[in-house]
Amino acid sequence: MSRPAPYRNQREVCSMPTAKEFTLTMDDRPGTLGKICRALSERNVNIIAAQSFPVAGKSTTRFVFDDPTKARSVLDNERATYTETDVAKVSLAHRPGELARVAQKLGEASININYFYCGADPNTNAPLIIFGVAEIGKATPLLEQAAAAAGRG
After folding, report:
1. Is residue 7 over pLDDT 50?
2. Residue 145's pLDDT is what?
3. Which residue from 61, 136, 139, 147 has the least number of CB within 10 angstroms?
4. CATH 3.30.2130.10-classified regions of the chain
5. 58-65 and 81-91 beta bridge pairing
6. Alpha-carbon gap, residue 105 to 146, rounded angstroms
7. Could you tell me if 59 and 8 are in contact, meaning their C-beta atoms sit under 8 angstroms apart?
8. At what angle do helices 98-108 and 136-149 cross, to 10 degrees?
9. Where in the chain are all domains bearing CATH 3.30.70.260?
10. How far apart are CA 107 and CA 65, in angstroms?
11. What CA–CA distance (Å, rounded) separates 62 from 129?
12. Residue 79 DSSP class
């Protein structure tokens, strides 16, 4: 089975252990997500990772983009309601036990994982895990070590 070709127009280096996350609050109705995604696409903004879930009649959607500056401009033009926060990220090998290894490493350091979701590393198409943690400064060196020890390939 062949793997898709890597995304060659990278604007954010995925080896960096942090990323800017945009959390949008939108109406939970048909077409809302499509409209935002179309606007991002038209400006050549790539979605690296995403998670969406309903909350009290609204849709909460988290995004990590390849170009946060351009994404911010698009979201502002669309009059989207959003917040920004820093999240930790790590690109892992696609094999059993990788998430367990990294989650345990964070737990052993007493770093609570508030949430996580997945995407794809635009450079390699490897699984990209996004972690929402309170102690991002403490988590990032551990994730750098975990990525180095992953033996991707």
Report:
1. no
2. 85
3. 136
4. 20-85
5. unpaired
6. 8
7. no
8. 140
9. 86-149
10. 27
11. 13
12. T
CA 30/CA 11 separation, integer angstroms: 31
CATH class of 86-149: alpha beta
Looking at residue 110, its amino acid is: S
Residues in the chain, how many? 153
pLDDT tens digits along 80-121: 999 999 999 998 888 898 899 999 999 999 999 999 999 998
DSSP code of residue 135? -
Which helix (H) or strand (E) segment is 147 a member of?
helix 136-149
Integer Cα distance of 72 and 36 in angstroms:
12
Region of 28 (left: φ > 0; alpha: ψ -120 to 50; beta: rest) is: beta
Q: Amino acid identity, residue 48?
A: I
- Give the mean pLDDT of 11-39: 84
Q: How far apart are CA 120 and CA 117, in angstroms?
A: 11
